[in-house]
Amino acid sequence: MRKIVFALMAMSLMTVNFVNAQDNETKEESKSNEFKRWQVRLRAVGVAPDESAKIGIIDGDVAISNALIPELDFTYFFTEHFAAELILGTAKHDVQAINTLAGDVNLGSVWLLPPTLTAQYHFYTSDQKVFKPYIGAGVNYTLFYNVKSGDVAGVDYDNALGYAAQVGFDLMLDDTFFINFDAKRLFLSTDVTVDASNLAPGLSIPAEVDINPWLIGVGVGMKF
After folding, report:
1. Which of 95, 55, 60, 88 is nearest to 74 (CA)?
2. How far is the C-alpha of 133 from the C-alpha of 201, rounded, in Å?
3. Where does the signal sequence lie (predicted)?
4. Residue 167 maps to which CATH number?
């Protein structure tokens, strides 16, 4: 009888120890997953095209103005290090054909909407995770709209798929809010057709334009 009692007591102790071990393991796993997976940022972004062009018939190059725009982005963290970011912003640019056989030609203005999706890797420089640099790369699809044609009858821009590279950092103010600095380079080209029939009957000028803008932004963000 005494052996049975001792056996039951031993089994009970083993069961309690096993349950406690499982409970501790569950708590550790839960703790490791306790991080905010979403964040949103609002930035002020300077857009600086690094433009060039191959212009048919009249030769020359292109000049595209800089812009200052607001930008909104949303980031989802799959883990504490790997994330995906969707970047939303739109910019208006003035455009000129320059140094052509016809001199400089005002091509009016155009709005660009380049929604961009990047995959990111985030680094943590300390256990406190106050300073968090990151790098990213991805794709964008640029829409051209609200075109004003300037001195010519019309300008047509083809929507285009491009690529993006990104580097930046978040500086945490507390567990929720942070300051952000971000630099992106979009590798973006488009085919352009200029209707210059108002200058010469039937004149249509093709061009291949590389826009390749730099986007340098500073803003604030919130994790949730």
Report:
1. 88
2. 56
3. 1-21
4. 2.40.160.20
How many domains is the chain partitioned into structurally? 2
Does 25 share its domain with 100? no
169, 133 contact by CB (below 8 A):
yes
Mean pLDDT per segment of 10 residues, for the chain of length 224 residues?
A: 42 42 45 78 98 97 98 97 97 98 96 97 89 97 97 97 98 96 98 96 97 98 96
Four-residue CA torsion sign, 33, 35, 39, 44? negative
| Residue 120, strand partner residues | 83, 136
93 and 204 together in one domain: yes
Task: Tokens for 216, please give them.
Answer: 């340098």
**pLDDT tens, residue by residue, 24-63:** 444 444 444 578 999 999 999 999 999 999 999 999 999 9
Closest CA to 189 of 48, 46, 47, 51: 51
Q: Which helix (H) or strand (E) holds 2?
A: helix 2-32
The 3-state secondary structure of 14-43 reads HHHHHHHHHHHHHHHHHHHCCCCCEEEEEE
Alpha-carbon span 41 to 113, nearest angstrom? 18
| Same domain (yes/no): 63, 16 | no
